[in-house]
Amino acid sequence: MPTSVLICDDSSLARKQMARALPRQWEVDISYATNGEEALAAIKAGQADVLFLDLTMPVMDGYEVLEHIRREDLPTVVIVVSGDVQPEAVARARSLGALEFIKKPIDPDKTLAALTQYGLL
């Protein structure tokens, strides 16, 4: 049974790059969201066993998504993918429940390592 993966980023290019960075051997069903509100709706609809989440987006940013996931105890594993790699951003994302933090531009090897490390692959 495929893993449902949700890629949430306001950039179409970043969404495509993230999808291409997923390991070929990983059986996935990919959905996309362009902002946090769309992501939360998709999670609630069961489309996000794993969520790859950008932090800087319009409508609702990644931090707000993480807060909602935690508050509502939504069933998803979150890996943040962001260009904002300041220690404060990484610490805040992790404190809000992000499992991992991967720097943009996305590196397929780092994605594979994170998925393997956490038993998602």
Automatic annotation (TrEMBL):
Query: Which GO terms are recorded in the biological process aspect for this UniProt protein?
Result: phosphorelay signal transduction system
Query: Which residue positions does 4-aspartylphosphate occur at?
Result: 54
Q: Does the keyword Phosphoprotein apply?
A: yes
InterPro entries assigned to the protein according to its UniProt record, in alphabetical order: Bact_response_regulator, CheY-like_superfamily, Sig_transdc_resp-reg_receiver
Q: Where is the Response regulatory domain?
A: 4-119
Task: Please give the SMART domains that the UniProt record associates with this protein.
Answer: REC
Q: Which Pfam families match?
A: Response_reg
Q: Which UniProt keywords apply?
A: Phosphoprotein
From which domain of life does this come?
Bacteria
Listed name of the protein:
Response regulator
Source organism per UniProt? Natronospirillum operosum
What phylogenetic lineage does the species belong to? Bacteria, Pseudomonadati, Pseudomonadota, Gammaproteobacteria, Oceanospirillales
